[in-house]
User: Fold these one by one.
Assistant:
Number 1:
Amino acid sequence: MNSSRVVVRSDDLLPPYEQIRRQIVALIMSGQISPGDKLPSLRQLAKDLDVAIGTVARAYRDLEQEGWVESRRGKGTQVARTRPQSASPPSPDLLERLARDYLTAVVAAGFDAEDALSALTAIRAEDGPT
């Protein structure tokens, strides 16, 4: 996995370890990283993201407890060969709730729905289809 796919934003309400955890789960679920793919070392990802090693360690520990990754001393951390049983496809209700939360945050920041849509379109154009 290329660590540039994960970004920690200081203006995000989620703690950095949770941002890392969620982004890695999203990369796994979208197929951008595959079972058996090796994740960056704790030190490397911490350096790349400019966060403490403990922050990355917590994200990796949570991912391992949830069954997304497997860690082996001396071998590093890799994506688990099988998805956790709790990993079901996201529901349309979840998407609607996330969209509403996003729109609420956008409006609270002084933007409107068109600004939000333009920003999403620009991000998708930069990142390519997922």
Number 2:
Amino acid sequence: MKEDISKVSSEKLLQLAEERIFSFGPRDLASALSYKNMCYGLGKIIYVLQGDAYCVFGPDATITRNKGRWLSGFGYGGVIRWCGDNIAFPEIRPNACGMLLMRLNNFSSKEDLIRKASEVEEKEITLEGIEINPDFGKGNHFFEIYEPLEVSEDVSDVFPEDAYFAILHGSAPELKDNMYSWEGKGERVETPLGDITVLYDDEAEKYYKEWSYLESFSKRRREILAREVVGEHEAISNLTHQGLFSKNEARLGCYDSMEGNGDVLFPISLRWDIPTYVFKGKQNLTDKIIHRLGFYERAERLDLLEELKNVNILPHGGGYDLKLPYGEIEIISTSFGNIFALSGLEPAPDVSEISIGKGVSKFGEMVVTDPKSLPYTYRGKRVIGKTNELELGEMRAKLRPILTIKV
């Protein structure tokens, strides 16, 4: 970045950040909120670095329901990269969430699985002396059983038609406080968009080392809990979709599609009432797709074209879908933090909701500091459609959920 940004205004810094956000998220409220919020988090990073950082949002771009992450200015469903290896931003809050996709060696009955999953809650299970607290029912974490619906011939040995499969979606909450505590250990840097905690040099190295342990622990934790519920199984993949993928790259809710040189299988889990899709990864984005998205000239001007060609993004799910009819977002900066004012209601779908005089809806504007309290569901197959359209990966299997366990 050639421009001196040490004395820029908050408005200019937001412009610099927005120019460096490339989003192909859906046109909905959750995606729009995430985009708006990321301008603040990315802007802070750019100011600290006095150099380049950028973000790419995938087809599942959405809010984060982690309050601390949101209030720090970060959205979800994307990749953040910055220059320099010896600097870290702990307010991104990596938690090593991921999914273990497995083939079951035996599947006795639904009742037996439910009983075993419930009993795990009462067992004393440890990993490296740390007691494991199962979280099958917390947030969007789950244990789910499947049968195959469609399988490509090249992976038919992995997904035989007479077998059952499972996914365990979870992180390592036992170590979360340790990881998040780094927010209070670094240097607090003031920027035109608010303060941000920064770790430099040795602190950044220690932070990344602790992250690496957290990720390893999280993967082993998923394996242990899976054995407790389904017994011995064959792991197909055990992949992280939330965390640090290098010292200067964070992925929030998306895979690296070239992990294992793209030769691994990535589950994309949408909802309990929709099939789970399994993809092989591809290097992305292609020149053709960058042109189609309208990113080419901007990326070339910012010297980010090669970065976009190797962003290698693949969603892990559909993302939160906010069930509110607002179409406009205004951000009001206060000493308390950013306030998001939602307005621009869509036309009322029913005559009973039309108010006299206003003619749109009987509901008014809404003002929130973070979106955790907003009503939500999960997006569906349109995310898969966009993943295929943008050539982010190649679909190899479709699995039908037959039992979702949240206990």
Number 3:
Amino acid sequence: MELLSDQGLRVDGRRAHELRNVECRLGVFGRADGSAYLEQGNTRVLATVYGPHEARAAQRRHDVASINCQYRQAVFSGWERGRRAGGGGDRRAQELGALLQNTLESVVLVELYPRSQIDVYVQVLQVSMLIARNDKILTRTVVRTPPASNAATLALIDAGVALRDYVCACSASVLRDQPLVDLNSLETSGAPELTAALLPRSGRLPLLEMSQRFPRG
């Protein structure tokens, strides 16, 4: 299946430089100090923030705030409903939580909240990504970093947490010498995927991750 047509169109109808449609809403979960709902294409993410509040003794830092990030993928988020996704035993979810924590620590003014803790929870509600099987387009669930980072940043803004910058995350790759942005799973199945989080004001990159999928032997 051609991932990029002669007319420069991708399988989902976008051009190489085009992002998926993005919609977001703030303040969607009243019991949290801050919350954000983000739709990026068919990906739907809910992020909630609690705090700053007094830190637990094990996480207390006397000069700055501690940031705790947890990433979970709802079991109903896609076609692999029989599998446990995003639980405590999911190593990839833990890795994404750590990446998210490192990213947010670079933008939150943690020195303003000594001995405090900020809890950030990201729940992936739906991840529909394209897959080719027998020349047909199907969907499946794929854990993605950029929507989680974007939703978490919006939730921190909604909570009124002081930030030195805001995070804008996106994925990219190169196909037939053509740069692509905001990839679907077909485009990442045979090419490296670069995930980058940019701080627009400073131009810094707090997150830069390269990944490559390999077919099972």
Number 4:
Amino acid sequence: MRVCSVSALALLVSVVLAAPRPPVRQQEVPLGFVLIGDSTTNNGTTLNSGGWSNGFCASLADVENVYCMNEAHNGATTGSTISSGQFDHALDTIKTFVADGKKTYVTVQFGHNDMKIATPESMGANLTIMIDAIRAAGGLPILVTSLTRRSFNADGTIADTLQPWADETLLIAQQEGTLSIDLHADSIAYCEAIGPDACHRLNRSETDNTHLNENGMTVFGRMVALLVKAVLPDCLELVENDTLDYDLKNGLPAYR
């Protein structure tokens, strides 16, 4: 099996665009992805439902051997996910994937709701509990920092309130020796590059700077897929989308 060694989103996209395209190869070991988080991850079956997960799953090539399951919930915090039984349900999915021979990666993204009721350190303690349980179930956790809110300052920069929770996520990943991707930083950089008007075209509604419409789902789902591809030891194949990859790399609006 080939090994992916690229570690930055922009460099990864450059390589994808420049290299000749071999046929999509079959995964030697089936891969499973289980997505845990709040509404900015979650998608239901309704368009404009808020998160990036459907866009991520749609980016995965070789659907015969790559499986993707959304276990995120609207309004969820790390604490409520653990206490409500939602996390136990996700663990059951992980165990099923593993028992079926799938190498199972588990994305975990929280912060939007935790910041309303808990300190970063409290969220970090819950993330540690989740990491331990995911590993015990046979899964491989990938901590994901929060998707940015698309609220802007007058100077065109993002009016960010999530950074302490993003920092805590990366700290826990470092302490626990688990994979992580900094969606928070990359989504801020992209939104600031394309500006408020283009960024707000990704909103679920005109005044909702947190949740995504179908276009936002596609854009940020692809961003997550590229970031995950960059950190995986398995060389993950993605559905070709040169135009969107180019826009993400160069900070251009995907929907004009």
